[in-house]
């Protein structure tokens, strides 16, 4: 198994949270004899989990932009760090 890198954790966390929210929502909808208060609280919790996942899935402005170019059989990745180093040469 691959080690859990920060990038992998950042990518998986929203999927995990959305999945948990979906499971809670479906469980509330199919539960027999559930009171209105529990139904409302369950759907509220499911919606909060899904909304939190959507918030985590958005990219932040602090993440660097990058571009990938193909030159022949190789790929060239340009990042702000690469461009900064190229200017200093």
Write structural notes for this entry.
A hairpin with a 2-residue loop joins strand 1 and strand 2. The chain has one domain. Helices cover 63% and strands 11% of the residues. The protein is built from three helices and two strands; from the N terminus they run ααββα. It is mainly α and 89 residues long.
Q: How would you classify the helix and strand content by structural class? A: mainly alpha
Backbone shape: elongated
Radius of gyration from CA coordinates: 21 Å
Number of strands: 2
Whole-number mean pLDDT:
81
Helix content: 55-70%
Strand order across the biggest sheet? 1-2
Number of helices: 3
Topology as a string of helices (H) and strands (E): HHEEH
Strand content: 5-15%
Which blocks of ≥5 consecutive residues have pLDDT under 50? Answer: none
Gap between N and C termini, in Å?
A: 39 Å
Number of domains: 1
Give structural attributes:
mainly alpha; 89 residues; two-stranded antiparallel ribbon; single chain
Question: Short description, anyone?
Answer:
The protein is mainly alpha-helical. Helix content is 63%, strand content 11%. A two-stranded antiparallel ribbon has the order 1-2.
What's the SSE blueprint?
Elements: H1 6-30, H2 36-57, E1 67-71, E2 74-78, H3 80-88
Antiparallel strand pairs: 1-2
């Amino acid at each position: 198994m691959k080690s859990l890198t920060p990038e992998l954790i950042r990518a998986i966390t929203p999927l995990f949270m959305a999945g948990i929210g979906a499971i809670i929502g479906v469980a509330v909808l199919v539960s027999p004899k559930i009171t209105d208060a529990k139904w409302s609280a369950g759907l509220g919790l499911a919606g909060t989990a899904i909304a939190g996942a959507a918030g985590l899935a958005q990219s932040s402005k602090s993440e660097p932009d990058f571009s990938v170019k193909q030159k022949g059989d190789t790929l060239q990745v340009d990042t702000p760090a690469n461009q900064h180093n190229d200017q200093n040469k």
